[in-house]
Each structure stands twice: as C-alpha cells, then as structure tokens.
Amino acid sequence: MAFEDPTRHPLLVLSDLAAVGTVGATIMGWLPAVAAVFSIVWLALQIWSDKTVQDWLKRRRQNKVARLQRTLDKLRERDQAGRPN
C-alpha cells in the first residue's frame, strides 16, 4: 500500500514525474543537458521544501542555538569568576 498525502496537489505530483522523466530522457540522450539541469533544480527545490527536511533543519538550528547558548553561559561564568568583588 502506497502512502498518499491528501494535501499534495495532483499538479505537483505530475510535475515531479515530469522532472524525473526529463532526467531519464536526458540520460538516454533524447533531450539536451539543459533540460536535465532544470529538472534537477526542480527536484532539489521539492526536496528542500518537504516538511521532513524543514523539520530536520529546524531541529538542527535549535540544537545549534542551544550549543551556542551553553558556550555563552560558560564564558559568562568564567568572566564572572575572574572579576574581583
């Protein structure tokens, strides 16, 4: 049973299939390389805008901010410890 996303517009599915088909046709030598470049760009944009990828990037940014905050806290503690009262 295939997973179907009910929120995905049928036109997007068709455009994804066309992009994959264009890459395949270019590999077979039926289309110029420019068509493959456009298809690869389209597929990359689709992958980038995918919810899973965006969630992963969001978590990654949150982890980076948390690491920077911990480093900043350590530097502040070290600075406070070095100052005379």
Structure commentary:
The protein is mainly alpha-helical and 85 residues long. The protein has two domains: 11-49, no CATH class; 51-85. The protein is 78% helix and 0% strand. It has helices at 10-27, 33-48, 51-82. The relative contact order is 0.07. The model has no long low-confidence stretch (mean pLDDT 82).
Number of strands: 0
Regions with pLDDT < 50 over 5+ consecutive residues? none
Helix content: over 70%
Radius of gyration, in angstroms, nearest whole number: 23 Å
Describe the main β-sheet briefly.
Answer: none
Strand content: under 5%
Overall geometric form: elongated
Order of helices and strands: HHH
What does the average pLDDT come to? 82
Query: How many helix segments?
Result: 3
Classification by helices and strands:
mainly alpha
Distance between the termini: 69 Å
In short:
The protein has 85 residues and is an all-alpha fold.
Could you name the key traits of this structure?
3 helices, 85 residues, mainly alpha, single chain
Map the helices and strands.
Elements: H1 10-27, H2 33-48, H3 51-82
Helix pairs in contact: 1-2
